[in-house]
Amino acid sequence: MIKSLEGIGMTSRRTRLRLIKRLSEQGITNNKVLDVILETPRHIFMDEALASRAYEDTALPIGYSQTISQPYIVAKMTELLLEKTPTLHKVLEVGTGCGYQTAILAQLVDHVYTVERILPLQQKAKDHLWALKLKNVSYLHSDGGWGWPDHALYDGILVTAAPPEIPEMLLHQLAVGGVLLIPVGRAGNQILQRVIRTESGYDVEQLEPVSFVPFLSGKE
Hints:
The strands form two sheets. This protein has a seven-stranded mixed sheet. It has about 220 residues and is an alpha/beta fold. About 30% of the residues lie in helices and about 25% in strands.
């Protein structure tokens, strides 16, 4: 049974509004992103025992040595993805996880193609997004380093785990003018990077320090 979408107590709308205020104070200015985060019940994406902490601005465990990303990071990466190209038709997400970032993206772009290497997490994510009636999402159980070539080229690519360097396959699946958001580096020394594909190559921006789970190969 899916947890209440509305929430009560520490998962209520009042608690969500406090999160939005904190995100605004941290520099998130895109009102569409803030509105979607406000209306998306983050507590349904985690175990009951942690639901009361859903609207804290922190990453939380979701099993399989994975986490649901900190709301600020979700908001920031989404805002950065939309900043250069406000209308995105096809976005590739590498690392579905519990589906929270997927849900945010699905309400702001035409279609999300999301790849997850851990099958039980992908199955849970599908259930969550189905409960939210978000049907503009396609799922693939695969090694994220391969991306999803069948639907390339993408207007945007968002990666939710940190490789030591950007996978070449992902760069090749980015459309000209498209934006790739990816944390790069090893634990304790990761930088969020934004890559924009141009006619002649790739422009890379180093944005801010971040902390993500490592980008692993293979499937589970």
